[in-house]
Input
Amino acid sequence: MEKMVIEGGNPLRGNIRISGAKNAALPIMASCLLLKGTSRIQGIPELTDVKTLCEILINLGVKTERCKDHTLEITVQDDSNVTAPYELVRTMRASICVLGPLLGRRGAAKVSIPGGCSIGPRPIDLHIKGIKALGAEVEMKDGYVIATGKRLKGTTVYLGGVAGSSVLGTCNILMAAVLGEGRTIITNAACEPEVQDLANFLNKTGAKITGIGEKTMIIDGVDELHGTEYTIIPDRIEAGTLMIAGAVTGGRVVLQNIIPGHLTSVIDKLVEIGIDIQTRTISKGNSPGKNVYECIVESNGHFNPVNITALPYPGVPTDMQAQFTALLSIAKGVSSITEKVFPHRFVHVAELNRMGANIRNDDAVSIINGVPSLSGTTVMASDLRASASLVIAGLVAKGVTEIRRLYHIDRGYEKIEERLTSLGAKMWRERE
Ligand code: UD1
Output
């Protein structure tokens, strides 16, 4: 196993290009199960989660071909298999996103039920509720969800759970319904940019989806969908993470390939914390959505305390909660972060405290008493975004930080040490 070693205290400076969004790439890749012909998708990040989904798709009779420049070609060759086995699904809970397209196109799906993880329980009741409403017969047996339904029938589905809507739940129902009969209305749909990206992709393949980015989505079923060319949106979570990494070191970082509109709540909080963020339009497209932007992030290394609540989009994303915690651990005063999406997602707190932070949890709230500085030590990554918070802490800590269980970070951040090193960070991988 590998560990990351970081020598803290080096301000980050320079330009960095944001990768394509992992959480858009995964459902879009899965949705290719619905298509006839080849799709050519650009902006696919090089991540272990992407590799895992490729393995699942290959096992389902799909040819996936990595071309240069982050392009992936996907073609269904054999649609006889409908099983996503435990051995492949267990490493990535997002594998559940093959459920909807398998059912929608092949009339059956047998997908291993994802277990819980360090961010808390990961129920799939909303996914099941949605496909049942569309007419599928569903059975939970031997750790698998087994669904059948020859041609699903459009209906109205309310996708509200205890924590609000579900991102992958919405994606799954969308993918199950596009080849269904008649009109499906998803109310309380997730509005995340990644869900929008999936819907935009599917429309390019011939689907009829309206209400994209709204709480009510309407899907009119069509008979066939075809391969297309598409570019994945930039990763707003990677962008937010790099904004904080640049700021925490008192540096100046220019982020390229970014959609600032996807980061409004994050930028708003960073400005309140005292970080200077300027957005520049680099070139204008034929609509505001086609403009090319860059963001310049600059900080003097002094941070104000703030109160943050992690919420579904357009609120501050839960996937940025741990990174904000690392930053606020050296703010001047007391901050709080309330987690409304995954109320158990606080495993990073104990590790940050080992680095000298002063954070305590009260139910789903972190109370962060800012300290003057953090100090490097050996810490354990426990999930993807917790690892990112430890990298941020390591970049600003005094001395050397070693992060164990590094594989988590490779699930969601492409070549992170190479890219941060190019900005002036001192960090490298070693064998544990
Ligand atoms: C996706 C993202 C993940 C992000 C999360 C919330 C991907 C691959 N992953 O995960 O990075 O942190 O959205 O923005 O896109 N819930 C239920 N029943 C369900 C499904 C979910 O109660 O059937 C609950 C969850 O426990 C959680 C909340 O709903 O409390 C949101 O989860 P959800 O949006 O489904 O997360 P994912 O789609 O799995």
